[in-house]
Amino acid sequence: MMRDPDGVGESEYGECMDVVRFYLRLRNGRVAEARFQTYGCGPTIAASSAATELVCGRPLEEVRDMAAARVEKALDGLPEDRAHAAQVVAAAVRAAAADALGRRGRREDGEAVCLSR
Amino acid sequence: MNRRVYLDHNASTPVHPEVVRAMLPYFEERFGNPSSVHDFGREAREGLDTAREQVAGFLEVGKDEIVFTSGGTESDNLAVKGVAAARGRGHIVTSQIEHHAVLRTCQSLEGQGFGVTYVPVDEHGMVDPDDVRRALRADTILVSIMHANSEVGTIQPAQEIGRVTRERGIPFHVDGVQTFGKVPIDLEAFGIDLLSFSSHKIYGPKGVAGLYIRKGTRMVSIQHGGDHERRRRAGTENVAAIVGFGQAVEVRARDMHEEAVRVVALRDRLWDGIVARVPEVRLNGHPIRRLPGTCNMCFRNVESESIVLGLDLKGIGVSAGSACTSGNVEPSYVLVGMGVPLDWAMGSVRCSLGRGTAAEDIDYVIESVEPLVAKLRDLSPVRA
């Protein structure tokens, strides 16, 4: 979990009941810290952890386009029947980045934003 | 380096040193084919005959009523398909929580036109003999109900079910793979006509098992070839493994009762320790009529595999109740059949103790489970 994250994203993989929630803290448009909460099998937890390292220091725009293949590569590959682990994590990462971009956009427009969830 | 604790004895067991010693001569010295006429063959044949006597003696049946197979799965297939093929058509009664070796064999027979009724189980995983009685039809040719379930350990009322089948003259097959050599099986009192039993669950080698076939039971072979096993199962016998199996049975005859008492105490120590420390955990299976060493637990809102892997990192081997294959997680069909809710069933873990399990091992497991489950729950966005 993260207090007052700059972006939060969640993704589910229904067939497996995996749920991933990804949190981002930003500094100067880049990811300064990333955390996760995951319910799921071993590979999904491992992929979540790997993703937090993968995104650190990256520009937000790049994180918004995070592909499952990159997450899988960070794990040195996944068995074919566990490929969903990378997919569900990448989706949560992209959702968190999109949320952060959305909040940034609203701030630039001068709207009030609630930063904590 | 972590200590290593093996708590998966329902999956397989280490081979007993006495068994290894008994097997060794049959690799390099007494290597003949038991069907060969010469002395080399006769030496191997003697080993085979002795093993058969050991197994038959343990079950108190005739030597010619024991068939050696390659495993519990083959024994189950031979029993169910062998009876079905002898009759050509008909109806089979089994339970919803049988091992896949029986379930998938029955499903395969359904595809060939046989009828099958899968009787349900209660919340403890227990079959009701009256459900079996009610399921019987005029064309029922076989009842197949396991003696104990490998996942939750519940021991079925075989004697009561056997009474039902005997009344109707219907053959009764029992998959005894998890009970043979662990709890007493009285074939006569239980009215059992076919019993599957296995070596590697009782400190014997893998790749060998047996099927007891009561004299007079109508069935045919499903593996054709030579005249081995009195034409009931063709194929050159795995002599060394069969010799090992026979020795494992001898050892069991000696150790079974004492080990059951010891292991029950350790199993209860494990459960008592975990339930005292970990919130939202439940025990599956019958509280009393259960295999001595089996402790199947559900941890609510924690995923099975993550617990198994977390314990594996601590050197502890247990088994998960759910399996993630091809991107689908299926909760255990046994727990589903028992009516366990999904948020519990997804977090099931089976511990099965054995002769090598010590009290210190149990304490180490308890100490490891508590922080692991707490961490996984903390890590999870899913709350009760």
Describe this structure in words.
The complex is a heterodimer of chains A (about 120) and B (about 375). Helices cover about 45% and strands about 25% of the residues of chain A. Chain A is an alpha+beta fold and about 120 residues long. The longest helix of chain A has 25 residues, at about 85-110. The radius of gyration of chain A is 14 Å and the shape is globular. Chain B has about 375 residues and is an alpha/beta fold. At the A-B interface, strand 2 and strand 3 of A face helix 11 of B.
Encode the helix/strand succession of chain A as letters. Answer: EEEHHHH
Q: Structural class, judged by helices and strands of chain B?
A: alpha/beta
Strand content of chain B: 15-25%
Give the CATH architecture of the largest domain in chain B: 3-Layer(aba) Sandwich
Q: Strand count, sense and closure of the main sheet of chain A?
A: 3 strands, antiparallel
Helix content of chain A: 40-55%
Helix residue percentage of chain B? 40-55%
> What is the C-alpha radius of gyration of chain B, as a whole number of Å?
22 Å
| CATH fold name of the largest domain in chain B | Aspartate Aminotransferase, domain 2
Summarize the structure.
The complex is a heterodimer of chains A (117) and B (384). Chain A is an alpha+beta fold and 117 residues long.
Topology readout:
The complex is a heterodimer of chains A (117) and B (384).
Chain A: E1 7-13, E2 18-27, E3 30-39, H1 42-55, H2 60-64, H3 68-74, H4 84-108
Antiparallel strand pairs in A: 1-2, 2-3
Helix pairs in contact in A: 1-3, 1-4, 3-4
Chain B: E1 5-6, H1 17-23, H2 25-28, H3 39-59, E2 66-69, H4 72-87, E3 91-95, H5 100-111, E4 115-119, H6 129-135, E5 140-144, H7 158-168, E6 172-175, H8 187-190, E7 194-198, E8 209-213, H9 228-231, H10 239-277, E9 281-284, E10 294-299, H11 304-312, E11 316-317, E12 319-320, E13 323-325, E14 328-330, H12 333-337, H13 342-345, E15 348-352, H14 359-379
Parallel strand pairs in B: 1-11, 3-4, 3-5, 5-6, 6-7
Antiparallel strand pairs in B: 2-8, 7-8, 9-10, 10-15, 12-15, 13-14
Helix pairs in contact in B: 1-10, 3-10, 4-5, 6-7, 10-14, 11-14
